[in-house]
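Collaborator request, handled under Task 6.
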Amino acid sequence: MRAILLILIVGIVALIIAFASGFLHLNQTREARVPSVAVANNGVVAKGGQAPTFEVETGSVAVGTQQKQVTLPKVQVPLPSLKVNRPGAPANQAATNNAQ
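Structure tokens returned to the collaborator:
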């Protein structure tokens, strides 16, 4: 229930911001009319009402790309070294065998 209430509050705040910033503009073009209801001897008679209509104008958002020159910092990373010693070989000889 709290999540639904939070979503509703965020939606209302977003609408207020849209109206205040001029991004959303509403004009009512036709007024609403309630249905007319009359009680007669043979029952209830109702004639339909009219729903309101609105004209909505919204702003637009343009999304695109641009070519920009960006300078990047130089990063130096030390690379690990790997020495493999063969079984039974001294450490000096293994290094010379790896170089060949």
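The cover message to the collaborator said: "Residues 45 and 70 are 74 Å apart (CA to CA). Residues 2-21 form the longest helix (20 residues). Please let us know whether this matches your experimental observations."
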